[in-house]
Amino acid sequence: MNKVIVYTQDNGTVAVVVPTPEALETRTVEEIAIKDVPTGKEYHIVEDSEIPTDRTFRDAWTWE
Prior knowledge:
By secondary structure, this protein is of the alpha+beta class. The protein has a domain at 3-8 and 16-52. The protein has two helices and three strands, in the order ββααβ. The chain has helices at 21-26, 29-36, and strands spanning 3-8, 14-17, 43-47. Strands 2-1-3 form a three-stranded antiparallel sheet, with helices on one face. Strand 1 (3-8) and strand 2 form a beta hairpin.
């Protein structure tokens, strides 16, 4: 299982940041979140299995 970073963007859509294996060679997932998530945004680090695989309604996803 792999970890991903999720946060809600200003327009209300959910962003899913998937760290590359190369990035994980030099940084932790937490460090990547600090670098890539906009300042002040709440984010969560979760298993990729928690992200829906059906992307049909991706623009309607929410994160709680």
